[in-house]
Design a protein that fits this description.
The protein is an alpha/beta fold. It has a single domain, classed as 3-Layer(aba) Sandwich (Peroxisomal Thiolase, Chain A, domain 1). Helices cover 26% and strands 23% of the residues. It has five helices and seven strands. A five-stranded mixed sheet has the order 3-7-6-4-5, with helices on both faces. A two-stranded antiparallel ribbon has the order 1-2. Helix 2 packs parallel to helix 3. The longest helix is centred in the C-terminal third of the chain and has 15 residues. It is globular. About 2% of the residues have low confidence.
Length: 204
């Protein structure tokens, strides 16, 4: 919205998270954490996440190689089993195809099931990359990290190798040793533990 103002040329967007003891205790009480690595996205049953902390920043400009094609503000959910409906609405708005790259929020929790359902419905053959498998669940910084991963993949034509191969029977998860990325469009699916879902599509 800020970039719709013709007086602005650039906008710096920053996200940060500090994992304090209260946050850790709350997520453990809600049975969302696991005791040790690795985070294993899209596993059944979900095996839990690891909290992380840090920050990320995006500089939006009117000119550049990566275009923000579509933004969907998504919706809120009140119960974990309602997350899939919100994710489905975001995917329907962003209209991903099998040729796109999907940057998922999958972190080893109920989020994975919600995203799996939408991916299988809209783009079952798309390559899926879940940066939280390597970075952990950064909460407030996590969505910024996802957008950075999407932009870098489009810009460089490559994805980071995962620390280990990710096993999934029905989602084409990017695994170790596979770094080439030929997609010209990336869909970022953001499903947060704060009960909010949103997404955007970037393109070359």
């Amino acid at each position: 919205d800020l970039m719709l103002n013709p007086a602005l040329d650039r906008c710096l967007v920053v996200g940060a998270e500090e994992a304090d003891w209260l946050l850790c205790d709350a997520y453990r009480r809600w049975h969302l954490l696991r005791d040790a690595p690795p985070i294993q996205p899209f596993q059944e049953p979900p095996r839990g996440m690891l909290l992380s902390e840090g920050a990320g920043a995006l500089l939006l400009d009117r000119a550049g190689p990566i275009k923000i094609e579509t933004i969907d503000a998504g919706c809120n959910f009140w119960r974990q089993n309602e997350a899939a409906l919100c994710v489905e609405k975001v995917f329907a708005a962003l209209a991903p195809t099998d040729d796109d790259l999907v940057i998922a929020s999958a972190n080893g929790t109920f989020v994975d099931r919600a995203e799996r359902a939408a991916i299988l419905r809209h783009c079952p053959a798309a390559v899926v990359y879940a940066p939280k498998a390597a970075l952990g669940e950064g909460v407030g910084a996590g969505s910024i990290w996802q957008v950075i991963a999407a932009a870098q993949a489009l810009h460089t034509g490559a994805l980071p190798s995962s620390a280990r191969a990710l096993e999934s029977n029905d989602v084409r998860v990017r695994s170790s040793g596979e770094t080439h990325c030929s997609a010209r469009r990336a869909v970022v699916s953001v499903c947060g533990l704060n009960q909010q879902v949103a997404g955007l599509a970037l393109s070359l």
